[in-house]
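Lab notebook, bench 4. Continuing the backlog of folding jobs that were queued last week. Each job is logged with the same field layout so the records can be merged later without manual cleanup. Today's entry covers Tetratricopeptide repeat protein, a 267-residue chain. Filled in by technician R.K.

JOB TYPE: sequence-to-structure
TARGET: Tetratricopeptide repeat protein
LENGTH: 267
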Amino acid sequence: MGNEWQASREWKDISTKWRLVPTGLRSSRPEDPFAQGWQAMEGGDLAGAQGLFEEACRVRGDGNDYVALGDVSVARRDWPAAESQFQRALLVAPLSILAVLGLALVRAATGQAETAVAELDVLARTRKGDPVIGYYLAVALLARTVEVRTETGDGRLLIGDADQLAQCDALARRVALSGTDDAELLAAGRALLEEVQSGQTWIWTAPQPVAFLGLVAALFGVAPIIVGGLLGSWPLVVAGLVIGAAAVFYAVYQYRRQRWQLRALSR
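JOB STATUS: finished
OUTPUT FIELD FOLLOWS
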């Protein structure tokens, strides 16, 4: 199970922040319940890890012990339990960056991604280019794109208005600049940016009516202008300009849409 577990998103959500802690500090005392718990966690034995981390909290109660216990809940996607343990870690160790990152992940997963992004932006400014901070920032940014988009009845996410389009554009670009080295997160950001750029393209929704209006503009717009010019009839020229402009305006107003608008109408 080890390789499969360690390739999962759950493991990455847990383990990435621990890259900030030297490996030796997690396993320097093999008899320590924390070290044993971490070994169980690495192998995907969540029940065993939970018991050992709980023992570590009773025996030592270090901030990292509570963070690790919270990570067991992260693996199970039990967000309230994870938040509780990360908060306890901050009570014991108020400057614990691991607990801060854990809480940011919880917020990103529970509809508070905007708050998570704001908190991670502060960390990112103090640790410029850190791929660990970048990982959690990218997760929060992508979670925010889920929050701002519209969910259809069958669970699909789509861009439903111009404000959502602008927000997704900005958020997707920020994922690329987050500093993360996680290929899946970067790919998700690129895919969203491609969707945004595709959605910004203009298309004609009904070619036949547009062609008819083009013919109207040519016959009753351009022709009167030419004839009026030859005859020196300014009223005829003005009439041609008005008719042609009206036909073009109506065609654009009625039948030209950005692609995201058509997707939104089809939900």
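OBSERVATION: The domain at 1-110 is CATH 1.25.40.10 (Serine Threonine Protein Phosphatase 5, Tetratricopeptide repeat).
SIGNED: R.K.
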